[in-house]
Design a protein that fits this description.
about 325 residues; alpha+beta; Gyrase A, domain 2; Elongation Factor Tu (Ef-tu), domain 3; 5-stranded antiparallel β-sheet; 16 strands; about 15% helix; disordered N terminus
């Protein structure tokens, strides 16, 4: 019986690194960009472009969303919220922001919607610990006020998290400085994927569990790649999913995974990865059958073995026929 057998013991949960300081504070997130969509047609336009229902997005709610190619592959992923009726804000990986704004703008046509890079006006900060828990918000809720926009994210490894988007010229939050590697480690531990330039156009949303974390609405109307996404959902068991692993070495997005039984064919790809105080976590997409039957290896068939860890949400893992 391998460690990935269907009869295996429950997977261990990711634990904070030994010697980690109390998780409390704030850190600037230069790797996160902000897009502003403004105008009376902003919500309607984005509703027809993203995997999420934006048209009925209420103030006070933040949702995950994806932007797909015509082939159903994720070009980018976002947190989306609506601070005003005619304004939508979206955060995405900063290395995809320019290309995403340019591509979306090509399809605005006659819609009364202006898309812009708001990075010069707004800056993103990660908040953890009491600063996040004390926001009074539950995961998936957001608040816009004079201090900026606060989005409560899902906890990770038992630590509360929030995203603060405020004026770039404003003073940083009056909180203890947080190590950026701590934020990234918690982001990976949360199991919520963030598409970056290294993984753009690599995954159908379900391959990175986007629908499992609320990033795909199957009742909304059409959007680019919608037929592929819907077919992937309803044709039966998915053959590829994203899993969480511990790694003995640091990894990076886009790095491939392998199994000894099929050395010539990659069995998966790293979506996000982070290392903090000697603890390396990997969020990686992989063939379900390979995950269930063998230990996955990082980088090559002779690479380091990855240890499967428990995600904070259930993932269907029955190998597809």
């Amino acid at each position: 019986m391998t460690t990935h057998d269907n009869e295996r013991m429950p997977l261990p949960s990711p634990a904070l690194p030994r010697g980690a300081p109390p998780a409390h504070g704030a850190v600037r997130l230069p790797g996160w960009g902000v897009i502003r969509a403004q105008g009376p047609d902003a919500a309607h336009f984005l509703h027809g472009q993203l995997t999420q229902d934006v048209e009925h997005l209420d103030t006070g709610v933040a949702r995950l969303a994806g932007y797909c190619s015509a082939k159903g592959r994720l070009l980018a992923s976002f947190w989306v919220w609506r601070p005003a009726p005619d304004e939508i804000l979206l955060t995405c990986s900063a290395d995809l922001l320019g290309a995403t704004v340019k591509r979306l703008s090509m399809f605005v046509l006659r819609a009364k919607c202006k898309l812009s890079d708001a990075g010069g006006e707004l800056a993103a900060y990660g908040l953890v610990g009491p600063a996040a828990a004390g926001s009074g918000l539950h995961p998936g809720q957001c608040r816009s006020d004079a201090k900026g926009h606060t989005l409560r994210l899902a906890d990770a490894a038992g630590v509360a998290r929030a995203l603060l988007v405020q004026g770039a010229s404003e003073a940083p939050p009056a909180l203890p400085p947080l190590d950026a590697t701590a934020w990234h480690w918690l982001e990976v531990a949360s199991g919520v994927p963030r598409i970056t330039a290294a993984t753009s156009e690599q995954f159908v949303p379900q391959m990175v569990n986007l629908e499992l974390v609320g990033g795909v609405n199957f009742q909304k109307g059409c959007y680019p790649g919608q037929e592929v996404v819907a077919r992937s959902q309803y044709r039966g068991t998915l053959k590829r999913r994203t899993f969480l692993f511990g790694s003995p070495v640091a990894a990076h997005p886009g790095q491939e995974l392998f199994v000894p039984s099929d050395p010539g064919q990659p069995a998966g790809m790293v979506v996000n990865a982070a290392s903090w105080l000697g603890s390396s976590l990997v969020l990686a997409e992989a063939k379900v059958a390979a995950f269930e039957q063998e230990a996955l290896r990082l980088g090559s068939v002779d690479g380091p073995v990855l240890e499967a860890l428990d995600l904070p949400y259930p993932v269907p893992t029955e190998a597809a026929a």
